[in-house]
Design a protein that fits this description.
By secondary structure, the chain is mainly beta. The protein has two helices and 20 strands. It has helices at about 5-15, 180-185; strands at about 20-30, 35, 40-45, 45-55, 60-70, 75, 85-95, 95-105, 115-120, 130-135, 140-145, 150-155, 170, 200-205, 210-220, 225-235, 240-250, 265-275, 280-285, 290-295. InterPro entries: Glyco_hydro_beta-prop_sf (IPR023296), MPT-1-like_LmxM (IPR015045).
């Protein structure tokens, strides 16, 4: 079982050795709305794009659209690009096709909300075809086609099975095999979050035959403030266990910036990675109000 306190202490003990070059990403074309919880840049229809969550500071109603970089760290909304009623976008590639996912939220009359993860096939910058809807109540559903051709599925149940949120995993042979039942029955990884904390997978990478997951780990403090940290771990496939878990970035590593609410100030929401030989670049949502990238030492070496 892993605990934020232990991981954070280990991370801070090594922090002086870590390369950190953080930069704020600026977004235009969205009026006075915020763009946060972004993906890493990816190629679609011959362009390098970022998908981002667009939202007013005083609202939780979001859309996801695509942006292109017009100068260093400045991104603008692509005219006539997709506009999906989602939160927290992510992407993967399956059979060579770009699959964009996000969280669909339904706000109920009693003031509560329900949510599920949905997936779209992006053929062009402006065309999105819904291909799968996950179970209600589950965020952080992720897919990765492995070198074997199989598809690794990460789940994140809450409640009687997952508490505040734990990661499960299973394998399917094709996207057409994915079902609600397979997702809900996926076993939880061993050696993961304690009951008072939670986390989820954000992006899956296969590196030299190992499966690594970029994720987040989170908790509440005594005042009810949220604390989110970027983490990675190795998924031991034979036993479906979380191993080599480590925090790779916390809020203080980034530039100062706005926050949505005071209880969200200490939030880093992992979006995606670009991996190079000696370093990585992490793209992340910051304090539910902005987006940044940061250069870090390669944690997979």
């Amino acid at each position: 079982m892993i605990y934020i306190k232990q991981l954070l202490q280990e991370y801070r003990n090594e922090k002086a050795k870590v390369v950190k070059e953080a930069a704020i990403l600026r977004f235009s074309g969205v009026g006075d709305q915020d763009v946060y919880n972004i993906t890493a840049p990816f190629e679609l229809a011959g362009k390098e794009v970022i998908a981002g969550r667009i939202e007013s500071r005083d609202s939780e109603v979001s859309t996801v659209s695509l942006f292109e970089e017009v100068e260093t760290n400045r991104w603008t909304l692509i005219a006539d690009s997709i506009e999906l009623s989602l939160q927290d976008p992510f992407y993967t590639r399956i059979d060579g096709q770009v699959i964009l996912g996000g969280v669909e939220v339904v706000f109920l009359e009693d003031g509560t909300a329900n949510w599920r993860t949905v997936f779209y096939h992006l053929a062009t910058l402006s065309e999105a075809k819904k291909i799968f809807e996950g179970p209600w109540g589950m965020k952080d559903l992720r897919l990765k086609q492995l070198s074997s051709g199989e598809i690794l599925v990460l789940t994140r149940p809450q409640g009687s099975k997952g508490g505040r949120g734990k990661i499960g995993a299973t394998i399917v042979h094709a996207l057409s095999d994915l079902t609600i039942e397979i997702i809900t029955e996926a076993p939880l990884l061993s050696d993961q979050f304690c009951e008072s904390e939670w986390g989820g997978g954000n992006e899956i990478h296969e590196i030299d035959g190992d499966i690594w997951v970029l994720g987040h780990i989170a908790n509440f403090d005594d005042q009810g403030n949220r604390h989110y940290y970027a983490m990675v771990f190795c998924l031991e496939r034979n036993q479906f266990a979380m191993t080599q878990a480590k925090i790779i970035a916390e809020r203080n590593d980034f530039q100062q910036g706005p926050m949505k609410r005071p209880d969200l100030e200490d939030v880093v929401f992992s979006g995606g990675l670009h991996i190079y030989e000696d370093h990585i670049v992490l793209y992340a949502g910051i304090s539910d109000a902005g987006a940044q990238k940061i250069k870090l030492e390669n944690p997979f070496r």
